[in-house]
Amino acid sequence: MNTEQIRAILAEHGRLTTPVEDLEDTSDLYHSGLTSLATVGLMLALEDEFDIEFPDSALSRKTFTSIESIAEVIEELVE
Questions:
Q1: C-alpha closest to that of 70 among 18, 22, 2
Q2: Carrier domain: which residues (predicted)?
Q3: Domain carrying residue 28
Q4: Are 42 and 14 in contact, with CB atoms under 8 Å apart?
Q5: Interval 35-71: pLDDT, tens
Q6: pTM of the model
């Protein structure tokens, strides 16, 4: 999974207080300023970019905790 695509979308829609380029793939996005409202915009942008739809089971804080966790869910949905 190309985490650079996720990082670009996160930079545009995540409204983070920490610059995306300063984050590790495992950094906690909520500690970096991600809010529940920003998560909705992020989710919609990811769905558009990867032509997927997040199922209800993936709509949790756990899915959007890190770039790595987002990439794992997207990888499963793309397959």
A1: 2
A2: 1-78
A3: 3-78
A4: yes
A5: 999 999 999 999 999 999 999 999 999 999 999 999 9
A6: 0.94
